[in-house]
Structures are given as C-alpha cells and as structure tokens.
Design a protein that fits this description.
Length: 359
C-alpha cells in the first residue's frame, strides 16, 4: 500500500528539475508569446462606452381609478367596460427599435467630431474612414476585394436597396448599441460604444434624443392628426363666417334707407346665417383648444437620470492585460510541452502504428 501511495504522489521536485533544465526553451517561448501579445495589443483599437439613463412616463390609458375598478370586477367575471387602453409601444420593445434597420440608417447622417480631429464628418464616414483593420484580417480583406463587384463611384446611398458594405455597417452599429430595460422600474439604460470617446458621447446623446422623439411622435400621432383636422375645419368656418359677414354688411349698406319688407326679411336672413356661421366658428375654435390640450396631455414626460458625458476610461480589454495573458499562455504551453512531449510523441507513434496495422 505504501508503494501504491507513493506512486500516486506527484513528484514536485522532479517536475521543477525538468522545467529548470529547459528554462531556455521556456524563456524563448515566453518572450515570443509576449512579443506576439504586444503586436496584437497594438493592433486592437480602444473602445469607449458612454451610458445614459432615462426614465419614461408609463401610459395607462388615462382612466386612473376606473382601471383598478375594472380589474377588480373582471376577477368576479364582470365586465364594466372600463379597461385601460394598452400602449403598443411598451418599454420592453425599445431594444427592438434600436436594432431595426430603419432606425440605424437614420444615424448615418449624424455629424460627429473626433476628440483629436476638428473635422466634422458624418457618422457613416467616421466608421468607414477611422476604423483600423487588424493585421490578421488582411488576408480576408484582400480576398474580399478580389471577389467584390465593382461599383460606380458616383453611386449614392440608397436606404431602400442597401449595398453589402452598408449592411455590414448596420451590423457594426447594431453591435455597438446596447439598450437594457429594468422590468421593475422601467428605467432605460442606453450604452453607445465607439473607438473615439467624444464620438461615443455624441452618439449616446443622439440616441437619447432620437428615442424621446420616436416615443413622443408615436404617442401623439393621433392627437396631432386630430388637431390638424380641427385647425383645418376652424379655418374653413372662419372663412365662411367672414364671407357671410361681408355679404351681410354689403347688403345692409346698399339698402340702408329701404322701407320694403322683403329687404328687411333678407337682412334678417343674412344676420341669422351670419350668427350660425359665428357659432360654428366658435365651436371649432373650442375644439382646437381642446385638441391642443389633448396633445399636451398625451405627450410623454421623460426624466433623464444620467446625461451623456465623455468617458475617461476605455471599456475594451486593457492592452497590458492582453500582453500578460499571452505571456502566461506561452509559459503554460511551454511547460506543458516540456513535461508531456514524450507522452505526446509516444501516443502519436501508437496511433500511426495502429492505423498502419488496420490498413
């Protein structure tokens, strides 16, 4: 039993002796992996992430206490017809809005300016011109350019028919936007990542304002359409009232000293018509005021908890950590090879021998 126990023990001193005997090989591998790590770290661009936090107003249909009474009645199988009108644009759908191609395409023309470059360019040009390709992707880029179809230099951007480059650009933007919703508080957290920290802050602030505009336009669309119609009807009623008023004044001035009963009857008829037109015009003005109030009521209120600020630290993996990781993996790999190279070689010989025997 003592001999079997000793055989199961790990000979730490023996392992250390083997590793020390091959210290030159391990050092060479460690130095080589460190150099590779430095090259890789220098070819990876830093990324900066800006975070904004927004708390939107939750719409419940504006029924207040009646909605609660309806819920209580429904539990007893009674429908009192006061169910709140559900909003189709609930917070959980906001990430899908950011991921939609229509939303992303509208970000292409946003003017941005880098921190160390005073030139203003569009966000699309910034991504195409300022992004660097790592050296290990050069073969793929070269193969892609060889098999890429030639396009005209005067070809304009067509949002209806996106090119392959624009599709890849949309995918890149979609990956740089992160929107999270807290289901308990409905607080929206938007994160925007870019290779330039100032551009990251600009785009995060733009996403915040675009989301607010999108939600506002959606929830006020019907009220704004109603207001537009009421304003149109009000303008027509006003014009009809002014025309009728002008007709009444002209007829009254031209028959000022007339004593005929027919003239008085016509004058009274025009006056009644003018009064009716004025009442219609007054009602339309009241409808316009109510429609404006309705637009104000349905316009959602937003509370910006955290505005966009230029980040000071990069959100990507630190280059020092990349170099240390490569050096560590190189040392581990060299040690593993030093300790088990004979076993690996014997296993390989055994595999070749069995393969030849089967043939």
């Amino acid at each position: 039993m003592e001999e079997s126990r000793k055989s199961k023990e790990i000979d730490v001193i023996g392992i250390c002796k083997i590793l020390l005997s091959q210290w030159r090989f391990i050092l060479k591998v460690a130095v080589s992996s460190t150099v590779i790590g430095i090259v890789v770290a220098l070819n990876i661009q830093k990324h900066y992430t800006t975070e904004v936090i927004l708390a939107p107003e939750i719409s419940s249909g504006g029924l207040g206490l009646s909605a609660s009474l309806s819920d209580m009645a429904s539990s007893f199988g009674i429908d009192i017809g006061t169910k709140p009108q559900m909003d189709a644009l609930y917070p959980e759908i906001y990430p899908d809005i950011f991921a939609s191609t229509d939303f992303i395409i509208n970000l292409f023309d946003i003017p941005v300016k880098q921190e160390k470059d005073s030139t203003t360019k569009t966000y699309r040009d910034h991504l195409l011109q300022d992004s660097k390709t790592p050296f290990w992707r050069y073969p793929l880029v070269l193969i892609g350019t060889l098999f890429k179809e030639k396009s005209s230099t005067t070809e304009k951007f067509n949002p209806f028919n996106l090119s392959r480059d624009d599709e890849l650009l949309c995918e890149a933007i979609r990956g740089s936007i992160n929107c999270q919703i807290d289901k308990k508080t409905s607080v929206i957290t938007i994160r925007m990542t870019d290779i330039d920290r100032q551009v990251s802050a600009i785009m995060a602030d733009t996403l915040l304002s675009r989301l607010q505009s999108y939600i506002t336009n959606y929830r006020t669309s019907k009220a704004r359409n109603d207001l537009k119609q009421y304003e149109k009807f009000c303008a027509q009623s006003k014009q009809e009232y002014l025309d009728c008023q002008q007709k009444y004044a002209s007829f009254s001035d031209s028959h000022l000293k007339s004593l005929f009963q027919s003239t008085n009857s016509r004058l009274e008829e025009l006056e009644n018509e003018m009064n009716l037109k004025y009442q219609a015009y007054s009602q339309m003005e009241q409808q316009v005021r109510m429609a404006k109030t309705r637009v104000q009521e349905v316009t959602p209120a937003f509370t910006v908890i955290q505005n966009a600020t230029v980040p000071n630290r990069a959100s990507s993996t630190p280059r020092t950590l990349i170099v240390v990781l490569y050096m560590f993996l190189g040392c581990v790999g060299a040690c593993f090879w030093t300790l088990f190279k004979k076993d690996i070689y014997n296993l390989y010989k055994f595999y070749i021998k069995n393969k030849n025997t089967e043939e």
